């Protein structure tokens, strides 16, 4: 919302320094092969042109470099199932950060299924003031269980399109020590810089997974979160909720939460806020004195765990088996809030969601040639095409089912 967004989205000056950027010494392809370095066996691909870090009109190029010692540490931490940072070098658009910190991300249980690691790249790990283009971290995801790496892009586009504060996402080609490792989703991190971009007052508490304090850690004043949780979870599902309905809007932005739940329901999602999962952030906005919910981790939308006939009011992820969202069950019982939720659902269905098949085709066409060059994937190009088509069909099926179910 302020001028910081312009700085973080600035266009860089060209891609000219892709090799030899690591100040601590890079690993050659031959050395990488001996060390089992992913990407070392891959083809060398000429970097693309300039682009903003989160520009959706292009596929951006990132370069990571490791010394042999640090790459060995990285592999050892993965083998032990630990998310430990090691030294690495990062570059984008002709600019470099020679001593970043890299670790594996995602659930440790999926690491054995990954042909290419997912990366969290941190610029303030060794030096708390470290930033790259104003950012503290870059988050590179590659879900090993879906053929088309576009679901986070689609989900967050929908969230932003309907008026919610949500991360920007594009696709990035990652080069590891000069060789093309593969294609990733580059998902904007929700942190203090995100708050500065999206809120007039970014000084409030931010909670990852709805409970883990990520800002103002030194003050560690979480009384307001505990009060909100007490209000929600001490309220029984049956009985007179008049006191609860009067108190909740003082602490939670009810209209924002209804909009977010409607957007997640339309998609649908399987393991997010509306499904009873912890894949979301709370932000305690000091200007309003109320909590808002920020969407996160939409990699499993519109797929096996999020079928077109997912229940409108109570879908807890099917076989994922989330505990029901207690807050949602309470809000469902408020006649005016229930009506507002359904009205928002219909507006999203007939608005942004109706444009999502076209958006899917656009993204898939944009990245198809890069998927074809990605040797670190279990999926063929044919399977990628099939997944792209399946996403579009599932969206159309969801629209039809919602119309039939709602009668409008």
Explain the overall architecture.
The protein has 408 residues and is an alpha+beta fold. The protein folds into 2 domains: 4-194, no CATH class; 201-350, no CATH class. The longest helix has 26 residues, at 381-406. The protein starts with a helix and ends with a helix. The protein is globular and about 65 Å long. The chain is built from 12 helices and 11 strands. Strand 2 (86-92) and strand 3 form a beta hairpin. The strands form 2 sheets. Strands 1-2-3-4-5-7-6 form a 7-stranded mixed β-barrel.
Give a nutshell description of this structure.
The protein has helices at residues 4-8, 29-35, 68-79, 151-161, 192-198, 223-233, 242-251, 254-266, 326-332, 335-350, 356-372, 381-406, and strands at residues 60-65, 86-92, 95-104, 119-122, 137-141, 169-176, 179-187, 206-208, 212-213, 280-285, 290-295. With 408 residues, the chain is an alpha+beta fold.
Mean pLDDT equals 89
Largest sheet: 7 strands, mixed, barrel
SSE ordering: HHEHEEEEHEEHEEHHHEEHHHH
Query: How far apart lie the N and C ends?
Result: 36 Å
Query: What level of helicity do the residues show?
Result: 25-40%
Radius of gyration: 22 Å
Beta-strand content: 15-25%
Global outline: globular
Q: What strand order characterises the main sheet?
A: 1-2-3-4-5-7-6
Low-confidence stretches: 1-35, 38-50
Number of H/I helices: 12
What class do helices, strands and sheet pairing give?
A: alpha+beta
Count of spatially separate domains: 2
Q: How many β-strands, per DSSP? A: 11
């Amino acid at each position: 919302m302020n001028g910081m967004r312009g700085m973080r989205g600035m266009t860089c000056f060209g891609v000219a320094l892709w090799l030899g950027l690591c100040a601590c010494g890079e690993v050659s392809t031959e050395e990488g092969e001996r060390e089992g370095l992913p990407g070392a066996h891959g083809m060398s691909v000429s970097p693309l042109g300039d682009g903003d870090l989160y520009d959706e009109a292009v596929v951006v190029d990132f370069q990571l470099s490791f010394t042999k010692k640090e790459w060995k540490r990285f592999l050892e931490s993965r083998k032990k199932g630990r998310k430990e940072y090691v030294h690495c070098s990062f570059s984008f658009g002709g600019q470099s950060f020679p001593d970043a910190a890299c670790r594996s991300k995602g659930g440790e249980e999926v690491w054995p299924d990954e042909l290419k690691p997912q990366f969290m790249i941190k610029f303030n790990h060794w030096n708390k003031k470290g930033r790259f283009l104003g950012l503290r971290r870059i988050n590179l995801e590659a879900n090993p269980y879906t053929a088309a790496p576009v679901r986070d892009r689609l989900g967050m586009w929908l969230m932003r399109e309907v008026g919610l504060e949500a991360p920007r996402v594009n696709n990035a080609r990652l080069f590891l020590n000069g060789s093309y490792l593969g294609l990733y989703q580059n998902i904007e991190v929700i942190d203090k810089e995100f708050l500065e971009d999206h809120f007039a007052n970014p000084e409030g508490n931010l909670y990852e997974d709805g409970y883990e304090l990520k800002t103002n850690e030194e003050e560690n004043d979480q009384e307001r979160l505990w009060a909100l949780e007490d209000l929600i979870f001490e309220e029984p599902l049956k009985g007179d909720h008049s006191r609860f309905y009067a108190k909740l809007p003082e602490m939670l932005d009810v209209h924002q939460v209804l909009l977010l739940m409607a957007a997640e329901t339309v998609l649908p999602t399987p393991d997010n806020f509306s499904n009873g999962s912890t894949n979301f952030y709370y932000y305690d906005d000091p200007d309003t004195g109320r909590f808002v919910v920020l969407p996160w981790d939409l990699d499993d939308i519109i797929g096996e765990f999020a079928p077109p006939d997912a229940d409108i009011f109570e879908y807890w992820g099917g076989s994922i088996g989330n505990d029901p969202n207690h807050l949602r069950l309470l809000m469902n019982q408020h006649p005016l809030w229930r009506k507002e939720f359904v009205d928002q659902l219909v507006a999203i269905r007939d608005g942004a969601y109706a444009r999502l098949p076209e958006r899917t085709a656009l993204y898939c066409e944009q990245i198809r040639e890069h998927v074809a060059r990605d040797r670190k994937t279990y999926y063929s190009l044919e399977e990628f095409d099939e997944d792209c088509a399946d996403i579009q069909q599932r969206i159309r099926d969801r629209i039809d089912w919602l119309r039939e179910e709602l009668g409008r």
